[in-house]
Amino acid sequence: QVVESGGGLVQPGGSLRLSCVMHGSFQSYRPIGWFRQAPGKEREGVSCITAGGSKIVYADSVKGRFTIDRNNAENTAALQMDDLKPEDTAVYYCAVVTAGFECDLTGDRFGVWGQGTQVTVSA
Asked: What is the rounded distance in angstroms from the CA atom of residue 82 to the CA atom of residue 80?
């Protein structure tokens, strides 16, 4: 089970930190990713981090503004979001890769998903 938290309403230019807690027998050597879906739009991969943190991938739309990290000892991950823009408004999901050990932002390798947390960026 994966549970996200930390969403909310923030003004443009503001920051939020999303957290992801993974319960159960998760393998700490699987990559973790963050995805988002805005109303009327397809799901978009935001960021992914491999087990040891040696490879991190960001979508072009969030590079330089978002930072992903993870703590394998605590089975947690986080997404620090700075300089938020209205177009970042979406439901954000944390997910764990279950097919292989590589990161990707398509979502195809991810087999365990959280319920999502709403992020709204508005003045």
From this structure: 7
- Report pLDDT digits (tens) over 2-25: 999 999 999 999 999 999 998 876
The DSSP 8-state label assigned to residue 72 in this structure reads T
Mean of per-residue pLDDT scores for the chain: 94
Q: How far apart are CA 14 and CA 65, in angstroms?
A: 11
Report yes or no: 94 and 77 within 8 Å, Cβ to Cβ: yes
Surface-to-core class of residue 68, CB atoms within 10 Å of its CB (0-12 exposed, 13-18 middle, 19+ buried): buried
Smallest CA-to-CA distance from 101 within 30, 45, 32 is with 30
Q: Within 10 A of 17 (CB to CB), how many other CB atoms are there?
A: 13
Give the sheet arrangement for strand 2-5, strand by strand.
2-5, 16-22, 76-81, 66-71
Enter the DSSP assignment of 53: S
Residue 104 banded pLDDT, cuts 50, 70, 90: confident
